[in-house]
Amino acid sequence: MEGRRGAMRDYDVVVIGAGLGGLASAAFLAKEGKKVLLLERHYVPGGYATSFLRGRFEFEVSLHELSGLGDEDNPGPVWRLLEEVGVARRVEFLAIPEFYRCVLPDADVVIPVGRESFEESLCRAFPDDAEGIREFTEVMFRFAQEALRANRVGMKMVMEHQEEFPTLFACFGKSLSEVMNPLIKNPAARTALGVICGYYCNPPSLLSFLTYALGTVSYLRFGPRHVKGKSQALSQAFMDAIEDMGGEVWLRNGARRILVEGDRVRGVVAQDGTEILCPVVVSNANPYLTCLELLGRENTPAWYLRRLGAWSGGASTVNLYMGLDCDYRELGLAHHETFYSEGYDLDANWMKMRRGETLEPSDIAVTAYNAVDPDFSPPGTSSLVCTFIAYAEPWMRIPPERYAETKDRVARRTLQLAERVAPGLSDHLEVLEVATPLTNIRYSRNVGGSIIGFDETFAGTGMVRMPAEGPVRGLYFSGAWVNIGGGYEPSLYSGYLTARRVLEDLEKGGPLSEDMERLRKSLEKQV
Hints:
Helix content: 25-40%
Strand order of the largest sheet: 8-7-16-17-18-15-19
CATH superfamily of the largest domain: FAD/NAD(P)-binding domain
CATH class of the largest domain: Alpha Beta
Number of strands: 20
Distance between the termini: 41 Å
Structural class: alpha/beta
CATH topology of the largest domain: FAD/NAD(P)-binding domain
Oligomer: single chain
């Protein structure tokens, strides 16, 4: 519903931002009977989980493959979460038959779903590394199993029974490279396993093995999925469920200001000037925007500002959204997700992009959405997206008068790489829309156009992630920037964890002074 200008209103919780984290928090709080208002400045919910129109094509903004879903017969954590708030059955999910295809200068391997198939496919492609591939797969699955069990039982029990978590203790705090490279020697085999690092927004030498293992095992156990109607259908289903459970959603009406009294949240002023009283605010906006603009620097404690200053926004992307006048199969594409790399040093390519030595990619993902959903685009056409990880800072140094020229040059280079797996692609372009990190900044207002939250590395494994609690009592965060990090599955689960924390605090009358002191000490230690 549209935002309504008028008299002061009272709610139990106001959620700022209808990204997946905000939608999940609002849905779980509404389910528990709380009077919830969700404010969103855009005309549709979703954040990055949305679509847009160009010509006769509707493009998917961000979703490549949804992890952790499964189905009724093999329900993953995302399925159970969506089922609990009445979203799962409002959406049609489409199974993607394989994890991904990887094309390299001297290798072309399809990575299937399922542990045994995953292992066998890689062993066939790289027989000299078969033993190492099997050992790596065993380590990855054991580590994920122990990490999930540790999360259930708590760190106290883990520390008291370390012998029950040998792989967790052996690999925790290590990068993917530190675990993989001693076991697998062939650079091509390492690259075939590493190309998926783009999903996790760090190269193998910086990517936490925890993040890689949990994410990859989730895909292999439950299979990747897409959404009929694109990710916008998932976001809309959340909005409908929230309203059906008694919550309210105001579109085209975000938050202008968070009101405080002393060290407590008092309410929110919406963009249209409506003053809303509430004891709890959950912000799905990034913490920088929330604290510096909505809460105000003057109301944000110095210790919290120091924590924000210690880290920065994470990786962004360049995307080429393409509407083609032909069937994708005419270009030789047969799989939903194809990674192409013209070399084997993913770290070197990544660092060149990070330092701004080049803006042009050496490895990309080519997503052919019609391979899973024949109705994804108009009859006789196809919708493709080429994606690679990029950083905003080098793009921000480009003089405004050279931005369009630079964007065109990078697009041409990306198309050259894409044509290694889809020959003739450029001849069939009907629509081409290019989005850079600056595009992401404009639409999301995230620092650096981040798609992942903070810029975490393996050194930031779990223990130093931002908690949901904010710098004043009654303020919480949900989404990619807190709890367990970014991505669709983590953002949804982050929203759930934040809602659970809000409910626990409301049960005891709000966060206590000792809770805030514990938060301060934790964040100061992180800095």
